[in-house]
Design brief:
single chain; 184 residues; alpha/beta; Maf protein; 7 strands
């Protein structure tokens, strides 16, 4: 059985491929604007559900990841300047990474939200400028990649590391089993 991934994320594609799944990628086009008063877990769960419902396929998986720093939700930065602001805000602090996941097969839908806590080292302006110049932060929630050069700034991860990358595999695999998808 082929699983349709409703996401553009190459990281999610790689993580799912590591389970031995046959994948088809069909990115969903959804409005990712948070609703007034929407809490981070509700936000990512809603977006994952909307993405899963927006894409055709026998079995579809939608996901969305956001970085939460207090009440602020940090998605992908619009440009280098916003990436610098995000990294300054994360410097020397702990923050949450939340990923919402929705698996859909026919009328059956399974959703979840997973939370990890990440602690950042103190960053100098030179480190921030160097990192943003690599281009890596520009398509990552919170402007960093745990699986890339951004790992050098992370001093601690509590919870799922794959969640911080974009898909909590230890929770996704049982979700897929509940939908009848059996990874290799």
């Amino acid at each position: 059985m082929t699983l349709t991934l409703a996401s553009r994320s190459p990281r999610r594609r790689e993580l799912l491929a590591s389970l031995g799944l046959a994948l088809e990628v069909s990115p969903a086009d959804t409005d990712e604007t948070p609703r007034a008063g929407e809490r981070a877990p509700d936000y990512v769960r809603r977006l994952a559900l909307e993405k899963a419902r927006a894409v055709r396929g026998e079995t579809v998986l939608g996901a969305d990841t956001v970085v939460a720093l207090g009440e602020a939700l940090l998605g992908k930065p619009r440009d280098a300047e916003e990436a610098c602001r995000m990294l300054r805000a994360l410097s020397g602090r702990a923050h949450e990474v939340l990923t919402g996941v929705c698996g859909r097969r026919g009328a059956q839908e399974e959703t979840l939200a997973v939370r990890s806590v990440v602690r950042f080292a103190e960053l100098s302006e030179a480190q921030i400028a160097w990192y943003v110049a690599t281009g890596e932060p520009l398509d990552k929630a919170g402007a960093y990649a745990l699986q890339g050069e951004g790992a050098r700034f992370v001093t601690r991860v509590e919870g799922s590391r794959s969640n911080v990358i974009g898909l909590p595999l230890e929770r996704v695999e049982p979700l897929l089993h509940a939908l009848g998808v059996k990874p290799a």
